[in-house]
Task: inverse folding
C-alpha cells in the first residue's frame, strides 16, 4: 500500500511539472495572437482614418469648386505640386479667376466623382467630371484626374494646370471668340421703328497710347472734356480686371461727324441703338447700356461690353430682344495654335417685337403736351390695344446710349417736373372722371335710377346730422336745383354723387368697386402700382365714402387704370385689360363688372353731356364725329398749397375706335380739353 501511494505522488508531481511550460506556451500564444490582432486592428484603423482623410479632402475640394471659392480651393493643394508648377498660390487664384471671368464661368457642379487607392503604388487617385455655365452656354463632361499627396496625418490635392481645364498645359491660354447676335427692334403697330440698330462709332480707350504719369492724366482730361465724360469714370473703366495695354475699352458712342483725334482713343464702327421718336416715346422704349459690374455679378454669363436693356421696354423685353452670342471657347497653345474647343455655339439674332403703339399718334399727342407735366393715353376699348402712351416732360434716351455725363444726368434729376416719371403709369386722384364708375354702380345696385332727382340748393352741402363734422361737399355750379343722373354728369355735380354713394353704403360701394381690378396687376411690361379704393381698402367713414364717389378721398388710379376701367362704359359693361404687344390675343383679358344696361345708360349720358351747351364737356361737340366725354378736376395738396389736376375722358360714340384720357398737372379740366381737342380728329384718320 505504501509503495502504491508513493508511486501515485510521483506521477502527480510529474504532471504538474509539464503543466508549467504548457501554460507558458499558451500565454505566449495569447500574447502573440493579441499582438497580431492589435496590429491588424491598428492597421485597419489607420486605413479607415486614411480613407476618411482622403474623402474629406476631396469633398472639400469639390465644395470649393461648387461655391467658386478659389482661395479656399488653393489652400487644399499640395505645396510640392504648387512648387513644381512654378506658380505661387496667389498666381493660381488669379489664373482661375481670370479664366473664369473671360468665359463667364458659373454654376460649377461635379456630375461624377471617384476616389480609389492604387494598391501597387499605395496612392489615392481622384477623378471627377464637371459641368459649368459660360457666356456661350453650358460645358458638360469635363473629365479631371489627379492624385492625393500624403504626409503624416494630412492629405492635399496634387495640382497642375489640367485641373483648370483637362487639356490646359502650362503656357496655354483659354480664349473666347464670339459675336453677339443683333438686338431685336421695337416697332410700332405698322412696323415703324421705335427702337432699333443704326450705324455709329464706338469710342474706346487704348491704354498703350495713353502714356504714363502726367501725360496720361493730361490725355484723360482732354478725352473727358472733348467727349463729355468724367475722368473718374474713364479711370474706373481702365481698372477693370480684363483690361491690358492692347485692350479696346469702350466708353461712349459718337456720331459719324464727331470723331476727334485724341491720344489714347480709337474708334470702331458699331451698330448703335437708335430711338427715332426720342423724347416722345422715351418712357416706353427706355434705353440700353453696357453691362455694369453689378449686372455681371447678378448674371455672370454677361461680360464687359455686353449691351442690355436698362429701363422701359428695353429692360422688360431684354431676354427676347437680346441676341444670343455665338462663337467658341478654346484652348490655345503657347505657339498660338488652337488645341481643343471647349464649347461652340451658333449666333442667333434677337426677336423683333411689334407694339400696339401708333408712332404718328404718339408723336402728335406728346407734342401737344408742350413739355408740361402730363400724359395722354389712347386705347382701342374692345381690344385693349394702347395706341398712345405719352408722358411729359421726358428725356433723350440717346444720351444714355452714348454715355450720359454727370452734368446732364443731374440736370434731369434736379428738374422739379421729374422727367423720369412715366405719368401714364403714375397714380393720381382721378377726379370727376371717376363718376363714370359711380354712376354705373349706382344703377346696378338700384339706388340710382335715371328718373331719380336730388333737390340741391347752393354750392355746398353736408348731411343734417353731425356725421361730416365740419366737412362740406362743394359743386362747381348751382345752375340746376333739381338734379337727376343726366344733369349730374353734364354739370359734374359732386353733391349728387356724394349723396348717392351715402345711400349705397360703404360696404356695398366697396363690394361693387371690387368687381373692377383694384389692387390687381394689369400685367403690363412696365412698373405700375395697383389702383386703390382707399389706404386700407375700406370706406368706413361717411366723408371718405362721399369724397370717393366723385374721385377724391384716398382713391388713386393711373391714367392707364382709368382708361381700362372706364372701357366698361364703351363695351356694354365689359372691361378690357390694356395690352401693348400686338402678338398678344386682342381682348383676351376681360371682366364684366357692371351690367350692359347700366353701362349703356351712362354712355348715352356722356354723349348728351357733350351735346348740352351747358355741359363741361360741350367743347367736344365741335368735332366732326360724335363722342361721349367726362371732364374731371381733382384738388390735391402740394407743398402746402391746394392745386388742381385736370383730366378728360372721351370715347368714340360712332365706331368705338378709341377711348382717350388726357391729364395735365396743375391745370383745370378745361385746360386739358382746350389742349387736346384740336388733335382728336387724328384718331379717326388712322384707318
Result:
Amino acid at each position: 500500500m505504501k509503495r502504491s501511494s508513493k508511486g501515485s505522488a510521483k506521477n502527480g508531481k510529474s504532471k504538474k511539472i509539464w503543466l508549467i511550460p504548457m501554460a507558458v506556451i499558451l500565454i505566449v500564444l495569447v500574447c502573440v495572437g493579441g499582438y497580431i490582432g492589435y496590429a491588424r486592428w491598428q492597421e485597419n484603423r489607420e486605413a479607415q482614418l486614411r480613407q476618411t482623410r482622403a474623402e474629406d479632402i476631396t469633398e472639400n475640394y469639390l465644395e470649393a469648386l461648387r461655391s467658386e471659392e478659389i482661395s479656399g480651393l488653393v489652400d487644399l493643394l499640395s505645396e510640392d505640386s504648387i512648387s513644381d508648377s512654378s506658380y505661387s498660390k496667389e498666381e493660381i487664384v488669379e489664373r482661375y479667376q481670370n479664366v473664369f471671368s473671360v468665359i463667364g464661368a458659373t454654376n460649377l457642379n461635379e456630375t461624377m466623382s471617384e476616389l480609389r487607392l492604387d494598391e501597387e503604388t499605395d496612392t489615392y487617385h481622384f477623378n471627377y467630371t464637371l459641368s459649368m455655365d459660360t457666356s456661350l452656354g453650358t460645358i458638360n463632361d469635363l473629365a479631371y484626374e489627379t492624385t492625393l499627396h500624403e504626409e503624416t496625418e494630412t492629405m492635399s490635392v496634387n495640382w497642375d494646370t489640367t485641373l483648370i481645364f483637362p487639356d490646359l498645359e502650362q503656357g496655354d491660354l483659354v480664349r473666347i471668340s464670339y459675336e453677339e447676335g443683333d438686338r431685336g427692334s421695337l416697332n410700332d403697330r405698322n412696323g415703324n421703328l421705335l427702337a432699333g440698330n443704326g450705324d455709329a462709332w464706338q469710342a474706346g480707350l487704348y491704354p498703350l497710347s495713353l502714356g504714363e504719369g502726367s501725360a496720361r492724366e493730361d490725355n484723360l482730361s482732354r478725352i473727358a472734356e472733348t467727349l463729355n465724360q468724367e475722368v473718374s469714370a474713364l479711370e474706373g473703366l481702365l481698372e477693370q480686371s480684363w483690361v491690358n495695354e492692347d485692350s479696346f475699352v469702350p466708353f461712349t458712342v459718337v456720331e459719324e461727324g464727331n470723331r476727334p483725334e485724341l491720344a489714347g482713343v480709337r474708334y470702331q464702327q458699331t451698330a448703335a441703338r437708335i430711338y427715332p421718336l426720342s423724347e416722345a416715346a422715351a418712357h416706353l422704349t427706355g434705353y440700353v447700356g453696357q453691362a455694369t459690374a453689378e449686372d455681371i455679378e447678378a448674371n455672370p454669363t454677361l461680360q464687359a461690353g455686353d449691351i442690355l436693356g436698362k429701363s422701359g421696354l428695353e429692360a422688360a423685353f431684354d431676354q427676347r430682344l437680346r441676341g444670343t452670342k455665338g462663337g467658341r471657347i478654346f484652348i490655345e497653345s503657347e505657339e498660338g495654335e488652337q488645341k481643343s474647343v471647349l464649347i461652340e455655339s451658333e449666333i442667333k439674332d434677337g426677336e423683333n417685337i411689334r407694339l400696339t403703339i401708333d408712332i404718328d399718334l404718339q408723336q402728335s399727342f406728346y407734342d401737344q403736351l408742350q413739355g408740361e407735366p402730363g400724359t395722354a393715353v389712347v386705347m382701342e376699348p374692345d381690344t385693349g390695344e394702347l395706341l398712345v402712351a405719352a408722358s411729359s416732360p421726358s428725356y433723350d434716351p440717346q444720351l444714355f446710349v452714348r454715355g450720359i455725363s454727370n452734368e446732364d444726368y443731374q440736370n434731369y434729376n434736379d428738374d422739379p417736373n421729374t422727367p423720369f416719371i412715366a405719368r401714364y403709369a403714375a397714380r393720381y386722384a382721378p377726379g370727376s372722371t371717376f363718376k363714370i364708375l359711380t354712376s354705373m354702380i349706382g344703377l346696378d345696385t338700384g339706388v340710382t335710377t335715371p328718373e331719380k332727382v336730388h333737390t340741391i340748393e347752393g354750392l355746398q352741402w353736408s348731411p343734417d346730422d353731425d356725421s361730416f363734422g365740419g366737412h362740406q361737399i362743394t359743386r362747381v355750379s348751382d345752375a340746376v336745383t333739381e338734379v337727376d343722373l343726366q344733369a349730374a354728369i353734364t354739370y359734374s355735380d359732386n353733391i349728387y354723387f356724394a349723396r348717392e354713394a351715402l345711400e349705397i353704403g360703404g360696404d356695398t360701394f366697396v363690394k361693387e368697386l371690387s368687381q373692377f381690378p383694384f389692387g390687381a396687376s394689369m400685367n403690363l411690361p412696365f412698373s405700375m402700382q395697383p389702383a386703390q379704393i382707399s389706404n386700407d381698402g375700406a370706406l368706413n367713414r361717411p366723408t371718405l365714402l362721399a369724397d370717393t364717389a366723385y374721385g377724391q378721398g384716398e382713391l388713386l388710379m393711373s391714367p392707364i387704370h382709368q382708361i381700362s376701367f372706364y372701357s366698361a362704359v364703351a363695351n356694354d359693361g365689359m372691361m378690357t385689360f390694356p395690352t401693348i404687344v400686338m402678338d398678344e390675343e386682342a381682348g383676351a383679358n376681360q371682366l364684366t363688372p357692371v351690367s350692359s344696361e347700366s353701362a349703356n345708360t351712362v354712355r348715352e349720358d356722356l354723349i348728351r353731356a357733350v351735346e348740352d351747351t351747358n355741359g363741361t364737356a360741350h367743347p367736344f361737340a365741335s368735332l366732326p364725329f360724335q363722342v361721349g366725354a367726362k371732364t374731371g378736376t381733382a384738388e390735391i395738396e402740394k407743398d402746402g398749397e391746394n392745386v388742381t389736376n385736370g383730366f378728360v375722358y372721351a370715347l368714340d360714340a360712332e365706331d368705338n375706335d378709341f377711348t382717350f384720357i388726357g391729364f395735365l398737372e396743375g391745370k383745370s379740366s378745361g385746360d386739358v380739353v382746350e389742349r387736346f381737342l384740336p388733335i382728336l380728329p387724328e384718331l379717326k384718320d388712322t384707318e
The chain has 22 helices and 25 strands. The chain has three domains: 15-170, 186-354, 359-392+425-684. Residues 1-5 have pLDDT under 50 and may be disordered.
